[in-house]
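Why run this: before we spend reagent on co-expression, it is cheaper to look at a predicted model of the complex and decide which construct boundaries make sense. The entries below are exactly what would go into the expression plan.
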Amino acid sequence: MTSRTTTPGFLAIELDGAGWDGADITRAALAAESAGFHAATFTDAPAPGRANALQRAAFAGPVTQTIALVPEVDTVYTEPFHVSTQLASLDYVSGGRAGWIVTAAESPEAAAAVGRSSATGVALGQEAATSIEVSRRLWDSWEDGAVIRDVATGRYIDVDKLHYADYETPADFAGAGYSVKGPSIIPRPLQGQLPVLVPASLLGEVPVDAVDCVLVSAPTAELLAAEVRDVRARVGASVAVVAELDVVLDARGQAAAMRAAGLTASDGGRAAYAGTADGLTDFLADLLTEADGVRLHPASLFVDLEELGRLVLPELRRRGALRPVVQDGTFRDLLGLGRPASRYATAAAASAANGK
Amino acid sequence: MTQHTRAKSDIFTPSGQLQFGVFFQGVNSGTIWKAPESGSQTDFESFRRIAQTAERGLFAAFFLGEGLRLREHLGRPHALDVVGRPDAQTMLAALAAVTRNIGLVATQNTTYNDPADLAHRLASLDLISGGRAAWNIVTTDNAWTGANFRRGGYLDHADRYRHAEAFVQTAKRIWDSWETAVGPARRVVHEGQHYTVDVTARLPRSAQYRPVLFQAGDSPEGRNFAARQADVIFSAHPKFDDAVEFRKDLVERSVAAGRGANAVQIMPASEFILAPTAEEALEKKEWVRSLQIGPQQAIAYLEQFWGRELSAYDPDGPLPEIDPVVEETSETRGSGFHGAKARQLADQWRAEAKDKGLSIRQFVTSKTARLDSTFTGSYTTVADQLAEYARVGAVDGFNISPWLIPTGLDDIVNHLVPELQERGVYPTEYRGTTLRERLGLETPVRTADQAAEAVQA
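The model came back. Tokens follow.
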């Protein structure tokens, strides 16, 4: 057993497979939370029967207490203004537990649905980068404390604390350039800025300083730790590195290999673990010495979630490999990120706030 | 007292029943933020409290509005009113988890959305909530709001309903495109003037077939649009005589559009100021108005028509003698005032205020107090009034804007609802499970021909 030299890590779980029914979404989110997962993610890749990810995450908000809720939201065929306000709203309905997995839709079908020609290559990363920048500006466009409710002067808001984002796409933007005026139509999110999670494939066009977490994939489980180290070297210590892992466990008297054969293969490109709960525990304990977190993609949501909660997470916790779950904590708290001041806050206001 | 779904007919038949909706406005001068009991406009708990109170009162629907650019006053965001609200569908998806029965109505703009994307998100909300979702269809035509969107979004005023209608028809085709409730889906293709869609829907029909459609336009084009496309119209005509007139007009349009006389329901926007006695209600009304239109709001209201700073004027004195600086009124952007000639208007208002002996504050209160949409009185007299609406079928219900968040429905649910139930004009339990069933609306029927047409058109 490797002796731990780094801080304990966190575990996220993809909740795809719960479907669109409210009762099933609740059941999955509560199972993930009580199993001790730190974060639940919601894929939005187009598939028959898959409801909007951000709404599934919002539904899970009021029924959970501690788990971070992190939907995928596309940046290519969406309006950055809507994306920003929807994510800020998710932060409100979850009490500061929202995050954003940035995706850039590649499929021609996604483009055809909205009557646009499809974006490829560099354009995908640019779309992601500009949409992130718009969201971040809009989240800051209401400074903290902009709602003052000052009866004496009759002012509900302090207009000096609201700011125009005045975003314009850069000259080398491959798609149709656009601008976004602002301010946002919702006050600053509870976390100030939502944690932004980006797949490693979009880094480059998406600058590292726009990112809080990078999602790292490798073709096999054996290569995953090395890939994590490579990405770590690129992004430095200030960005959390999260390894992606498909999981199928021995469960309900069936060997993982048997179960895997009967299940549809994952959407590809991810390392996979198939085997016993004990083996997975050891594998994750090792991986978490390199990665800040691991996101698990269970082969069959409710079956594997049960095994993970019963056998894997308790043992990892016993070994000190997992961060404690913080009551009333935000997603930023979990990631060890402070609450940033708005970029528009005046120097005077910022220093006053820091002095508190 | 069961309200049956009424068969298609050219003759309007009153249901004899009323339904309530609640409109959590979030941006306006009608919500009092200055009282000690005024709660947060953004915390989830405020929304949960209002929605759960409404559900206790058997309300059919919980409405959220949408504004996609902050109102401005003299070139800066407007500071005096409640402002800053969550995204409608995100909030409603969360509320779906803490409510069981109430309909969830999202106001969403056709100008700044794509039909395939919006149809998918509304279908998601409908499925997640077990068939309780509705879409309040709005359109915007100004480039000022479009400055927040990559598509820009300027439309000719005349064009906006044509665009909206093509949008709604496309959304309906997407919702109709699953061959059976469990699939498979067929491809929907639309090539139009404003957008192109080529999509295979990912979600099946919900328990109520598809989201219920609300619409609020009041111009002749807006009314015709509602008559052709909507299930419920969120009207601006709650006053009895106007409501009767509006019903007549809408029935004619609806029959002319080939739908039955009962096809479109009417729920006017309204405000209730209630108390055990008439005297107490009037006292309460004065208190409410004084907090809705404070001295600063009164001055700001005039400033948007005068186009200049008027802060030197006494809110309790007469209207300003100086003239407006612009020919066209400089509107508080986004609030919907358009185009009156400023000078002419100022002369007219000065004369009116002088004639009635009104101060600036009194005058502005009289202009903004929604005199027509407020029901003030004792629980019993207001219940009697409403029963008359139900008896003649002037409306199908009321969409109530509470002036206090989050306690603004308590009076209505605790006192008015029981009075209405005693009079036999208000539900005593939730019927069915979907919003469509609650409202007594017909389930859309999808014939084989329509199925084919839905895909090919």
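Chain A is about 35% helix and 15% strand. Chain A touches chain B through 64 residues (CB under 8 Å). Bring this page to Monday's planning discussion.
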